[in-house]
């Protein structure tokens, strides 16, 4: 009996986790300014931990980001970005129109 109850609890947790992730994904909108976390191995000692980006597209619950340097090549999952309330002059008008940042 306890094994069945445990399996039901696990199933309920998985459903709750899926709903929580869906709510997080839906909280991001195109044009939002976000922080993209960079891994320790991908940066030097003086490099920033985050890159300021703008969401420019959303497909299949992943996001395409762009920064002042241009578009990022890959789509990013919601667990790698964080909404920010930073006030900045960076907006969609400052984003380069091509992938090379020109």
3D structure, described in words:
With 102 residues, the protein is an alpha+beta fold. It has a domain at 29-94: Roll (SH3 type barrels), CATH 2.30.30. Helix content is 25%, strand content 31%. It has one helix and five strands. The protein has one helix at residues 2-27, and strands at 33-37, 50-59, 62-67, 70-77, 81-83. A five-stranded antiparallel β-sheet has the order 4-3-2-1-5, with no helix packed on it. A hairpin with a 2-residue loop joins β3 and β4. The longest helix has 26 residues, at 2-27. The N and C termini lie far apart (64 Å).
- Spatial strand arrangement across the major sheet: 4-3-2-1-5
The helical percent reads 25-40%
Mean pLDDT: 75
Number of helices: 1
What is the global morphology? globular
Q: Secondary-structure element sequence? A: HEEEEE
Main structural class: alpha+beta
Can you summarize the main beta sheet? 5 strands, antiparallel
Q: What is the total tally of β strands? A: 5
Gyration radius from CA atoms, angstroms? 18 Å
CATH architecture of the domain at 29-94: Roll
- CATH fold type of the domain at 29-94: SH3 type barrels
From the N-terminal CA to the C-terminal CA, the straight-line distance is 64 Å
Which runs of at least 5 residues are low in confidence (pLDDT < 50)?
A: 1-6
Query: What's the multimeric state?
Result: single chain
| CATH class category name of the domain at 29-94 | Mainly Beta
Q: Beta-strand percentage?
A: 25-35%
